[in-house]
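quick one, 143 residues, struct below
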Amino acid sequence: MKQIAELLGWIGVWGYVLALINFFVKYVNKKFINKFPKDKQNFIKMYRTIMRYIVKYHKIIGAVASVAIIGHLYLMYKRIGLSVPGLIAALLMWSIFALGFYGAVINKNFKGKWLKLHRVLAFLLIFVVIFHVMFKRVLLIHK
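---
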């Protein structure tokens, strides 16, 4: 059970990292790739091909990461108890997921305050996850 819980935690982390890359590839494309000269078409085409896959699978990867974290949270709770920083990280990740779901499925407008909040919370999650990893045993509510 410990190995499955750890695997789900790592799936959540790597899924989150891959989903976060979406922001960076779009930013680099907007700020740099769009300004490349015409003689760099091979590089531009290669970059945008990679970007297309990252953007296309962003939603799926985010959903998989969110589900994996719920499994990780449950199994770790059953095993050792409740990590308060872990719970905060999971709730934050699910808030990010809920905002993404709202924007992509319900609102269908890829601009607005929900997107800004989705991004801000995604970057905040970096620090919350680091805090969780550093202090998971200190701030633990035993079963």
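The chain has one domain: 2-142.
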